[in-house]
TrEMBL record:
Gene Ontology biological-process entries: galactolipid biosynthetic process
Protein name: Digalactosyldiacylglycerol synthase 2, chloroplastic
Record bears the keyword Nucleotide-binding: no
Cited PANTHER family: DIGALACTOSYLDIACYLGLYCEROL SYNTHASE 2, CHLOROPLASTIC (PTHR46132)
Gene Ontology cellular-component annotations: chloroplast outer membrane
Keywords for the protein's UniProt record, in alphabetical order: Chloroplast, Membrane, Plastid, Transferase
Compartments in which it is found: Membrane; Plastid, Chloroplast
Family: Belongs to the glycosyltransferase group 1 family. Glycosyltransferase 4 subfamily.
GO molecular function per UniProt: digalactosyldiacylglycerol synthase activity
Domain of life: Eukaryota
Length: 542
């Protein structure tokens, strides 16, 4: 008997689109499959050519899903340093200009054959199930776990209005409750009675007596939570657990190790540089950063800051920051692992400064032969300012900490995971921001301890995920049902019937809202071509 879990990870984006829901599920698949204890399949969207141009870098396109798979694996291997041993499958998708995101087409549960269906991990469960029209996830898979990445409510409040945010909140709670499993215990016989927001857990004791715990009791820690929220900055969904199950690209940890070596050898691992890196949208922290700098220019006299990013608001952001009395330089987007952030700076006696890739420096530089070099110093930005509060868990902050930098960020639920690190400095208001920034510039970053470095790694993130979803135990066959009190059986039966009725309503509604993949996409992915009938999919709802 095969005792391995077969984990299918469904996500809403894919490399080469460099977004959180393409990068983090990819790393999760790689590290879950690394030791061979799990069978892992990553299920990602396949877009037609006309949609690829909206999300992929300029000039990048794929004529077949095999070309994209090759790109995905190459990108991953360059960052992990090991060959991945998980499967990649594609589901048909389309890019929604209105929602600025990829939506699935048709019934994407069919991508995993029934005989392989075991555990499904839905990265962004609300996103994947808004328009899901097909077989019910909980009927198809033994276990369905959701991981909430995005604070959609905050974006809708900022970009639309509070009324739409209210309705979205109800819809998110509804679909996640429908399609992700409810709490259960593993290996412990139990019965639950749900009543409104309170549930009672009844456990048998060794002496034959039953012990009862309320939902607020610490004794309920054995419960399996099927919805994992990366931070408390996400929507508070029913029966969800807050746990950061993301890690950082291993390259950043390697950079951090080299930083420690520099600190130990010459104590000159950093310059006095301050920077912020992020997509140039006002909602990505630039509005907050501008306000903080503008209101406290006198206290921060002499501060120089570099901004790196590209986006729809780039021009407006550059104009606004140039009006400040402080020195603010705006640059195009760069990879956070770029040598620019952590390598060498050459200094000329004419006062000119240029940054080079460390490989070019090692090979010798003929570009500057007309100038006398006054010296070469180790160069790395020391402080990352990150005022953004729209991110659920800011990857940039994790990367900066991994590289050994000091991070100044808001005292906000999205940053709670990072507060365990000595180099994370938080603030509550403008005065706190000034104090934290000036102190960060005056201090030297504390070297990361081995335990802290592990906490940032994907190995630790994988451990947290397996523990949170209780997938760190060997799957067992379902035990035979035990007798229970009739009123409990009736309660569970009624709950199931209500859920079935609710799912039927969702299925019928999405029949008029969801779209089917076109013939070309189906042929490319080897899927059955859907019927032309409008309103309902060709697949039978089960």
């Amino acid at each position: 008997m095969d005792k391995k879990h077969h984990i299918a990870i469904y996500t809403t984006a894919s490399i080469p689109w460099l977004t959180g829901t393409s990068i983090n599920p990819l790393f999760r698949a790689a590290y879950l499959a690394k030791d061979g204890e799990q069978k892992v399949t990553l299920v990602i969207p396949w877009l037609p050519l006309k949609d690829q141009e909206h999300v992929f870098p300029s000039g990048v396109k794929f004529n077949s899903h095999l070309e994209q798979e090759k790109c995905v694996r190459q990108w991953l291997e360059e960052r992990t340093g090991f060959a991945s041993n998980f499967s990649i499958r594609f589901y048909p998708g389309k890019f929604s200009l209105d929602k600025r995101s990829i939506l699935a087409l048709g019934d994407i549960t069919v991508i995993i054959p029934d005989d392989e269906a075991d555990v499904a991990v839905l990265e962004e469960p609300e996103h994947l199930t808004w328009f899901h029209h097909g077989k019910r996830w909980k009927k198809k898979f033994r276990l369905v776990v959701g991981i909430v990445h995005t604070n959609y409510l905050e974006y809708v409040k900022r970009e639309r209005n509070a009324v739409e945010a209210f309705f979205l909140k109800q819809i998110n709670s509804w679909v996640v409750d429908l399609y992700c499993h409810k709490p259960r215990s593993d290996g412990i016989e139990k019965r639950m009675l749900f009543h409104r927001r309170f549930f009672l857990v009844i456990l048998p004791r060794s002496d034959g007596l039953e012990k009862r715990y309320s939902s607020t009791s610490k004794c309920c820690n054995f419960l399996l939570w099927q919805v994992i929220r990366l931070s408390a900055a996400t929507q508070d969904l029913p029966r969800s657990l807050v746990c950061n199950v993301h890690g950082v690209n291993p390259k950043f940890l390697q950079i951090g190790m080299k930083t420690i070596e520099k600190q130990q050898n010459d104590n000159q691992a950093f310059s006095k540089g301050v920077y912020y890196i992020g997509k140039m949208l006002w909602s990505k922290g630039y509005k907050e950063l501008l306000r903080l700098l503008r209101d406290h220019q006198k206290e921060l006299t002499g501060l120089e800051i570099d901004l790196y990013g590209s986006g729809e608001d780039s021009a407006q952001i550059e104009v606004a920051f140039k009006k400040l009395e402080l020195t603010v330089r705006v640059h195009p987007a760069r990879d956070h692992a770029d040598p620019l952030f952590h390598k060498l700076r050459w200094t000329f006696n004419y006062g000119m400064k240029a940054v080079y890739d460390w490989k070019n420096a090692a090979a010798g530089c003929t570009f500057c032969e007309k100038h006398d070099l006054t010296g070469i110093i180790n160069f790395s930005y020391k402080v990352l300012l990150n005022p953004s509060t729209t991110d659920v868990v800011c990857t940039t902050t994790a990367e900066a900490l991994a590289m050994g930098k000091i991070v100044v960020c808001a005292n906000h639920p999205s940053n709670e995971f990072f507060m365990q690190f000595q180099n994370c400095r938080t603030y509550d208001d403008g005065k706190g921001f000034v104090k934290a920034t000036l102190k960060a510039l005056a201090d030297e970053p504390a070297p990361l301890a081995d335990k802290q470095r592990h906490e940032l790694s994907w190995e630790a993130a994988t451990e947290r995920f397996l523990k949170s979803a209780q997938l760190d135990v060997v799957p067992v066959k379902k035990t035979s049902k035990t007798s229970s009190k009739s009123f409990l059986s009736t309660s569970f039966s009624l709950t199931r019937k209500l859920e079935d009725a609710s799912a039927s309503v969702h299925f019928m509604g999405t029949g008029f809202l969801s779209s089917q993949p076109d013939e070309e996409q189906c042929k490319e992915l080897g899927l059955a071509i859907p019927s032309k009938k409008k309103g309902f999919s060709s697949g039978r709802w089960i």
